[in-house]
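Fold this sequence, please.
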Amino acid sequence: RVQASIAEASEILKRGGLVAFPTETVYGLGGDALNPDAARKIYAAKGRPSDNPLIVHIAEPSDAEKYAYPNSLYYRLAERFMPGPLTVILPKKDSIPSTVTGGLNSVAVRCPAQPVARALIAAAGVSVLMLCIVDVSAFKLSGKIFDLVDPKAIILFAFIWVFTNLVKKTKKFHPLVFIAFSAVVGLIFKF
């Protein structure tokens, strides 16, 4: 069942859609990092300014070479801390759209250790995923979240907040949950 769910999510990514999935630190929206429209969808879904760069998630630390110009420090850090919750900023290659990097000449690269995230990235085979980080533990329901113009974004953030707190309280995460979460996001935003 888990493999079927990952295969379904990877097909969504290949078609230019978005999926929600966990990393070891947050839940986020992922899309094909080489698809400028996927980046635009992520910015729209979160209400994030398009000059705020996204993080490119890779299946293996060596995959950074496809999208950036890693240096010796990157390889030392990757050997010690990847896969894991480390993001490294590197000079980007031209293959990465400027919509992903917020127009910058650098790209943020991360190789997550979370098994579902790694399996999804590997199965997608569409370069890498880019993730709009949504750290819902930092959300307060009486703050800027309600200043967003799009009511769909409020629904999305409320759903993420409730979902994450349930997972945190039960300390359990079923691998299929990210598919259900993706379906809800897709219905809300018609991805």
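Confidence is low (pLDDT under 50) at residues 131-150. The helical segments are 2-14, 36-46, 72-81, 98-101, 115-124, 151-170, 177-189.
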